[in-house]
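Re: duplicated header lines in exported structure tokens

Our pipeline writes sequence and tokens for each protein into one text file. With two proteins the header for the second block appears twice in some exports. Here is an export where it did not happen, for reference. First protein block:
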Amino acid sequence: MNRSLRPPAPRSTLVGAVALAAALAACSAPGESGSDNSKSDSGPIKIAVVDARSGQLSSLGEWEWKGAKLAVDEWNKKGGINGRKIQIKSFDDQGDPTAGTNLARKIADEKYIAMIGTAESAVTIAMAPVLKQAGIPNITSGQADALVEQKSEFLFLNGPTSTTYDTTLAKYLLEDKGYKKIAMITNNGSFGKGEHDAFIKAAKELGVSPVTDQVVTTDQKDFSAALTTIRSKKPQAIFIGSEEVEAGLIVKQARDLGITAPFAGAAPQGTPVFINTAGKAAAEGTIVSSPYLGNDVSLAAQKFAAAYKAAYGEDAELHGAKAYDGTSILLTALKNSDVATGKKLADAIRATKYDGLLGQFAYGEDGVGITRTSIGIIQDGKLVAQK
């Protein structure tokens, strides 16, 4: 049959085709060509906050949410951005990479233009390809060097990498304290492996190899075998690379076995959850490498801590400060870019210079904005700056 002789399509068919085309256009990801209609949109600016809100890592999610929400609330009280309110929503990744990947797709489908989180490096890494494809910038609280290895122009860190944390720590232990006998205990998760590799590299560059290198699993509860081996080596200090709860259990069991050497670690060991899990006496003297050593270190930290306490009735800590800084950087970039999306927003984040609670942020091509930590000590149940 000659196609040119077919009768015209019914009006209902044409209307349906137009509607289908419109629906397909609406399904494009926030960063795709043709989808950047934010400048003509007077609706809310949608930002996702993704973290574990259940399970063993839920304390991280709680702190992150509170820090991010505090920043957003402050901006909204001042009128938002270009007269538009900022809308954030919490998503529970359960500390699971598969759940995180599914959430990344959901965030893209629901037109969130940016994401804060996660605090878990493995989950962030799993989400990164989906967010990159969708053109959604992500400011993460993870610290594993593997985050940088993703080489995504949409992935940014709101704190230092494990290399920075652990190089600072190794120099303090080996050079300032003069320790030569260092034991290690880390877990086999993304965070633990990152900490393990960064610390052992820094120590070996300073001429010291660990007297023992114990690796445990992320869901382990009994550490007696690893700790008995550590005790037999009589170390001067013990490097620990594990999240808050597990690290606290390790330290508690170590003290029960009569191990008196100080533990040393990064961000998790400076948190209330670690101290409470280990017990105040067991945690005493723990050495911590951190970019945020407390709520009294600066006028900005004091102001943040007071606002956090007023909003939530509890003291602020590192993870809340990191999320506050990361969210503030994102909102500043949105304002400076006239609420851009996709690559334009990623470029605006990279161009943002920000004087934050953790220090001076200036992003490089690797997505790292801050490269300095300081040493603190747990004293009387609190992290204080080493003098």
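Second protein block, exported in the same file:
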Amino acid sequence: MAADEKAQAKGEQVEGKVKKVVGGVVGNESLKAQGHAEESQGDLRAAKEKVKDAVRPK
């Protein structure tokens, strides 16, 4: 499950970055903002997984 969450986080980060760049290139502020939000959501999901890994006993 953790690997699945990590992959989803990376996917959100990449998708958000693409939308942010495309929105900036074409001048679409809405798409740019949506990309920023998705990238941030991916960052938060990745941070959550890092915390879970740190707390999980080895």
